[in-house]
Amino acid sequence: MTTLHLPLPRLAEATAPGEPILEVENLTKSFGGRTVLDGVDFTLARGSVVAFLGANGSGKSTTLKCVMGLETPEAGSIRLAGIELSALRGTELARARSSVAMVFQKIHLVPRRTALENVCAGALGRLGGPASISPMFFPRELKEEAMAALARVGMADRAHEKAGRLSGGQAQRVAVARALCQRASVLLADEPVSALDPRAAEEVMALLAELAHEENLAVAAVLHQPDLALRHADTVIGLIDGRIEYSGHISGLDASMQARLYTPNRAAA
Ligand SMILES: Nc1ncnc2c1ncn2[C@@H]1O[C@H](COP(=O)(O)OP(=O)(O)OP(=O)(O)O)[C@@H](O)[C@H]1O
């Protein structure tokens, strides 16, 4: 019998919507001497969806990777709930980062594990002991929380299906449920719908927006389709060559802004 105690399932913390949770200032990154992020500033607020748009290579993924610690910026500040991440080390940093979840275009589920087991894995960062070794030892409370998360994304009826047998759209929903089971406050989605057909893409984006608004998550999604951003995002950050060209309400993403963001040879334009 496990002695692990999990709090009651709770998909959102009692924080006011609109409150900034992630504040990024002057993010600067280069690869091989070439600057790919040049002083990027933005804020993510709970209860809203920010779409990151821009042409290939404009720096969208690198921005999210810097926030996740998958890339190290040369300069800049990343504050999560007011805490500067670069000042943290070891378990403190891991704990802070555990409130940020990421979903990717290539959905990282373990195909031979069930949807439920994959969702439970979202909690591994806070579980110790046998549960971190095998799903056999997942505590009952965790499975209940994972089932609640699967129900939240409309996948409860597929809980015991092997992840490898799910469609792309279903698998992405399970990945989102795993982020909920992680109890993340911030969800960074790097091209979450690029591998999905138009209907599944629409559904997954609608789900992300619903979770942002109803569960008080801060969602940032890198998208290649301005239309999806217009339908599901509250604000947009448009990047050109590693600099922010536009940051503001989604209504600013008009035809001329879209043309600017996607114009080839922008430096010459
Ligand atoms: N690990 C790396 N090593 C070298 N260059 C990199 C690396 N990662 C990204 N880059 C370069 O940094 C720039 C920004 O890349 P990034 O992937 O952030 O752009 P993006 O806007 O997400 O592009 P896409 O829409 O094509 O995914 C590109 O020129 C890319 O080639």
What features would you describe in this structure?
It is a single chain. The chain is an alpha/beta fold. The chain folds into 2 domains: 145 residues, P-loop containing nucleotide triphosphate hydrolases (Rossmann fold, 3-Layer(aba) Sandwich), CATH 3.40.50.300; 80 residues, no CATH class. 31% of the residues lie in helices and 25% in strands. The protein has a 6-stranded mixed beta sheet, sandwiched between helices. Strands 2-1-4-5 form a 4-stranded antiparallel beta sheet, covered by helices on one side. Helix 4 crosses helix 5 and helix 5 runs parallel beside helix 6. It starts with 19 loop residues before the first strand and ends in a 7-residue tail after the last helix. The structure holds adenosine-5'-triphosphate. The site of adenosine-5'-triphosphate has 10 residues, from helix 1. The site of adenosine-5'-triphosphate (ATP) has 10 residues, from helix 1.
